[in-house]
Amino acid sequence: MKPKVICHIMSSVDGRLLNDRWTEPFDGTPASDLFQVYAAIGRELYTDAWMFGKNTLRAAFPYKWGIDGHTVESDSPAVSVGDRHSERMFIVADPEADIYFTSSVLRGNNILVIVGRNATEEYLSHLRERRISYVITDDATDLRQGLEAVDREFGIRSVSVQGGGILNGALLADGLADELSLVVYPGIDGLSGVPSIFEYVGGATDCPAAGQSLQLLSAEQREHGVMWLRYKFHKKLHK
Known about the structure:
- The protein is α/β, with parallel strands linked by helices.
- The protein contains five helices and eleven strands.
- The protein folds into two domains: 130 residues, 3-Layer(aba) Sandwich (Dihydrofolate Reductase, subunit A), CATH 3.40.430; 104 residues, no CATH class.
- Strands 1, 2, 3, 4, 5, 6, 7, 8, 9, 10 and 11 form an eleven-stranded mixed beta sheet that branches.
């Protein structure tokens, strides 16, 4: 089984994600106060873990580990448990196995990395030295396989994905999203082509949302005019 996946994201009213482009609150409230509302809502989801896309994580760990080395042996243990003291865990899929971690925690939460068989023994040693947990899957780009592994090996039953439009788009296309937690900032971007809530990378004929419908579960107004919309995905087609 895989964990319940909640795509938790904040956008402008026109669905754009680059918050430095959004218009300012009308009453002079600092935009950072509104971002704190989003963060607080994320904690209210009470998931076992949360997840960024790799590109988003680069803001915290910008340096790369070299990918040359001894490829992990087929009989190497597929699971390593590092520090696990936090109430929630932070998950990242690292298909290239090259994130250079300088800490075993992100925002106070212990880190769990999903890597593929292309990872090197040297990189796995780096993770163990940092006391970072990991699981090895056949292919770390296979999100379903990775999510099933963290459920099976670490007992993670729910994940809030806060990684951005590309990760959301990949989850959507694979039919892995169970809920959408959309926090709407009362401002506008307005420019065509700016990244949006779901950004599937594909061709013009691809329909990543095909066979999926949304049911509104709740709509709440929060502080500073922020709206929180929560939807459930219904899947008509199994992908």
